[in-house]
Specification:
This protein has about 210 residues and is an alpha/beta fold. The strands form four sheets. It has a seven-stranded mixed β-sheet with strand order 1-11-9-7-4-5-6, sandwiched between helices. It has a three-stranded parallel β-sheet with strand order 8-10-12. A two-stranded antiparallel ribbon has the order 2-3. A hairpin with a 4-residue loop joins strand 2 and strand 3. The mean pLDDT is about 95. Uracil binds next to helix 6.
Length: about 210
Amino acid sequence: MREVHVVEHPLVQHKLTIMRNKETSVAKFRTLLEEISMLMGYELTRDMPLSRERIETPLMAMDAPVLEGKKLVVISILRAGDGILNGIMKLLPSARIGHIGLYRDPATLEPVEYYFKMPGDMTDRDAIVVDPMLATGNSAAAAVTRIKATGPKSVKFCCLLTAPEGVAAFHEVHPDVPIYTAAIDERLNDHGYILPGLGDAGDRMFGTK
Ligand code: URA
């Protein structure tokens, strides 16, 4: 319960530093996000079950380990989630994909859903929900609540950066969902941005600032 996995691998940390740097170009930022996501995917899939399959090497037969064919769905929280999604799909090409879009109502500040598309067989699948920035945690928690209502076997949450406030708020609602992140930064500013952070992940990925 309330698990947080910080992926401290030097390659992840080095690439994250380049992403944080405001001089890094949009193209480089996107490439790095995809590369880090593949490296994080290594941790996210560490508990995937293996079975044995009889194969012939050029020299002899052996019982070799193979993935048990676990059914996965990787769910992107639009729009920045697509950056992590692209990296993870390179590792898990047969996983299914879901998308959820939420915006914050300016009057109530509550997350409002505007898009929701999941595979039909969610009850057979383990879900990995992705969004680069777990900041206030409100929209991530709302997205996971909605996804859980479709009945996946398990849910993991993967981000690039978070802050203590985001982790606490998310786990207040979903203590059973482990968080995978490359770093837990210092805090949020008054606008809900992560400090020191990397700015607006969507703008930096898509060049929309
Ligand atoms: N979303 C972002 O893109 N950046 C933050 O720092 C917080 C939320």
